[in-house]
Amino acid sequence: QSRLTAAAVKVKIGSLEAWALIDSGADFSMVKCGLQQRMKAELGCKSITPLRSAKGAGGSPLVITEVLCDVPISISGETFGCSRLAAVAGLVYDVILGRDFCCQHRTIINDEEGVFRIRGLKIPLPTDPEIRASRAKVVLAETVTVPGRSVLTAAAVVEPLDGSGVTVAEAPVT
User: Fold this and answer.
1) Is the pTM here over 0.85, yes or no?
2) Helix (H) or strand (E) holding 104
């Protein structure tokens, strides 16, 4: 079952709906840099200056811009508190639920059953195709002509099929 599913769950933080990676190997929970401004405005979350540096799974330094405090995260209609949510540049997922969140809420990923358990909820884990759009709309910031058999770079917003957008400073266009 685990080969068919991803360790992710759909979350809602304010008006942001996103897939969150469940990563008990991450020391703390994270949000993609830039999204924290929206959360602060919508939810009135307070923030603190990061007190320490951290490294990613590959050993490269993480760029933490600020840390949000006491962020309400909704999963399957239930609200769970996240005491600290670090804004980190360059994340693949919009949200990562780290070891702090997993321990606080006593979560379980059951790969045999393909489910995520939290506070009595039993949530089916998604398949990779469910969380990764196979097609996307690219909205370019400027008019671009792409000659045949060529590659160029342009500022754009990539919108997966689910409608959430990812701003890309420079996106390859082929």
Assistant:
1) no
2) helix 99-104
